[in-house]
Amino acid sequence: MSPRPATPAGRLGVIRRFRRLLAARALPIARRVAAASPARPPGDAGAAEVLASEVLPLLAAARFLEREARFWLRPQKLGTRGRPLWLTGSRAVIHRVPHGLVAVIAAGNYPLLLPGVQVLQALAAGNDVALKPAPAGVEAARWLCELLGEAGLPPGALRVTGSAVEDAGPLLSGPDAADLVLVTGGERAAAAVAEACARRLVPCVIEASGCDAAFVLAGADLGLAASAVAWGLRLNGSQTCIAPRRVLVDAAVGEGLEAELCRALPAGRRVPVDPAAMAAAAPRIEAALAAGARAVRGSWTPGAADAEPYVIVDADPSMELLRTDSFAPVTAICAGLAGPDGLVDADAACPYALGASVFGPAREASALAGRLRAGVVVVNDLIAPTADPRLPFGGTGSSGHGVTRGAEGLIAMTRPRVLIRRGGAFRPHYLPPADADAPAFAALAAGLHGEGLLRRLRSLKAALPGLKAIADRGKAAGGSGSGAPLATEDAAPQEREAEAEAFARLG
């Protein structure tokens, strides 16, 4: 194991210095990261997109840890409130302890932000980290490692592996395998990682992409909805796991959304794309068109590194195009759905449930959001608000399980260790059971948990003789049951008083 900073203050000091270093070098780093990504616009437009979508959110995530990590990782001392009466004298503390080695198996679409937040959270929680970048993320991983080292992270606390698929193998099995695995990627790769973790019985957190829906309700601002969908399709060459792939439209909206979306996506305007992603999407587009859908926007030449975003209309939720994750700039509109129930049913046809957005009046949109399966739902916007560092991020179904980011993501980098201290010498559970104990315990159960105050009081009164007999047997036994069942020697005065009052209620 590495000589990682042993105290929260030491770990968070490294993160604070990292944040300041990244802020000071933001533009040159953004330029290098953008240049390594085929999905970013050329020139400083690409750097601007990296700054807005990766650097600024990563800086905010670092500051969140500086401010909040101590609180969420602090030992939690439990008082007497909620403690069972029969455990009088015991006190407990829940500690959050690091897993040990955390493996971050990263995707290449946001190579600085996504693994960066996970690495920082794992380090803040006291873990060592092994980062396996995607091929498109090697440059970003190098910068993460370099800046953290310059910020004072000890050698070995963070190591970067190769970017090939086989480089993940030693992290999943063998003597140097990780104690917790975080994987961001496609469904097949994530399932393979989950299977490897299951064989070793180690936990994993999986973000396996999505096929997100944008819901458009009656009364929605159609211009806003169309602008949001168009932006989500273009952002990062559409290589965003929560980009809008499905647009599910209430029948009351009519046909206005199609016209608005065509205005927001002018014909001939192209975006950088991953040719492999487009090649994978092409047969699904063709199948949808053969089944009766229409393309009102979209063109791509096989092998080309740019494309006009596709807008498919008259689509059906059962089409493969609407049931498969993709990094191609393609969205499909399902119109004429019968109110909230129809929208929810159409959404359920897709196995992915990562994110969603709902456009419409606030009350109706929030009501629909509460019925969706997605882990992150945004009302009257999409994608951008999910970068809030306070929020967890994760999905369900084919989108994976568990969360990263936010307080919940930080806590996931730890496991609970419970310390229980028992004071005094009274240990009635050490006594051998007697026939008379059964009615006493049954009466105690009815008295503590039964229905009706008077019945409970009568049950407690009925339990007293048997409980007193147990105490007397303990005294006679000497070690196992000696001492009074009230205050303990090491209990705080207020705890002794609470325990005395609790036993008094039995009388």
Automatic annotation (TrEMBL):
Its EC number is 1.2.1.-. It holds the Pfam family Aldedh. Residues 474-507 are annotated as: Disordered. It comes from the Bacteria. It is an enzyme of class 1 (oxidoreductase). Residues 75-417 form the Aldehyde dehydrogenase domain. GO terms for molecular function: oxidoreductase activity, acting on the aldehyde or oxo group of donors, NAD or NADP as acceptor. InterPro entries: Ald_DH/histidinol_DH, Ald_DH_C, Ald_DH_N, Aldehyde_DH_dom. Belongs to the aldehyde dehydrogenase family. PANTHER family: ALDEHYDE DEHYDROGENASE, ALDEHYDE DEHYDROGENASE-RELATED. This is Aldehyde dehydrogenase. It comes from Phycisphaera mikurensis (strain NBRC 102666 / KCTC 22515 / FYK2301M01). The lineage of its organism: Bacteria, Pseudomonadati, Planctomycetota, Phycisphaerae, Phycisphaerales.
